[in-house]
Specification:
Structural class of chain B: mainly alpha
Strand content of chain B: under 5%
Number of helices of chain B: 6
Distance between the termini of chain B: 26 Å
CATH topology of chain A: Glutaredoxin
Order of helices and strands of chain B: EHHHEHHH
Number of domains of chain B: 1
Helix content of chain A: 40-55%
Largest interface: A-B, 29 and 38 residues
Strand order of the largest sheet of chain A: 1-5-4-2-3
Helix content of chain B: over 70%
Order of helices and strands of chain A: HEHEHEHEEH
Shape of chain A: elongated
CATH architecture of chain A: 3-Layer(aba) Sandwich
Number of strands of chain B: 2
Oligomer: heterodimer
Strand order of the largest sheet of chain B: 1-2
Structural class of chain A: alpha+beta
Radius of gyration of chain A: 18 Å
CATH superfamily of chain A: Glutaredoxin
Largest sheet of chain B: 2 strands, antiparallel
Distance between the termini of chain A: 66 Å
Radius of gyration of chain B: 16 Å
CATH class of chain A: Alpha Beta
Chain lengths: 147, 145
Amino acid sequence: MTGTWVLLGALVATAAVALLLRRRDGRFAATGVAAPASPVDDRERVDAADLDSPLGERATLVQFSSSFCNPCRATRVLLADVVRSVPGVAHVEVDAESNLELVRRHRVLRTPTVLVLGPDGEVVQRASGVPRREQVLAALAQAVPED
Amino acid sequence: MTRPLQVDPRGLRFSAALTSVVLAAALLAPRPVALVLLAAQALVFATGASGRFDLSPYGRVFARVVRPRLGAPSELEDARAPQFAQGVGLAFTLVAVVALAAGLDVVGLVATGFALVAALLNAVVGFCLGCETYLVLRRLAPARA
């Protein structure tokens, strides 16, 4: 009898996790709140030295990947394509396993995780899981100051 | 440098589906049958956990019966994370076997339930819970050392 209940519980738990993943995967969320009045800007940053690669003029998409991560490939293809169509935006892929310090600093738990950096390297948006194209474009619109 | 072992991701999902069926059956079966099913599943997990995906009976069924109908895979996957995930599955089923054999039915069934959730997620939505834990653990490991 207990087995039947455990089976039902497992099915419900699986459905719940699957729905949660579907809702959350690829969704960008704003990171710290920018406080323009504050004298100290303590927002999280990633700079060119962290990445070993120059930042984009207007925004940078930092993708944390791991060698065994299948969804990372889909994300790489998508971001590379977005970068081609939006000027001033760079795409940098970081191997999570060989950059554990950066992984810890930005509390990356899953691959792919994408950070959207503003022009000064401040982390503006982040998402984990494979994003959709329109999600990336919307996140970029938030990060890039309109000119 | 040897190239890391590559596996067909569709084969992994197929194996996860068979694993789900075996684990669900173990939950419903009387204890002696459940013990046999879990022990057999532990052996299957052990083949994957030791990197011998080619020895896994589920993998063999996939290679002989399913893959010829699907054609060549569009991409292969690095075997390290699934290998780790199979190890996690092995740990849970071993706990279940020991607990059931010792008469701790609830512990055994709950451990089986956790393994079932992981297998179902992999089979149904292609999400590998064990693989996701891999980075979390890699992240923690050097900090502790």
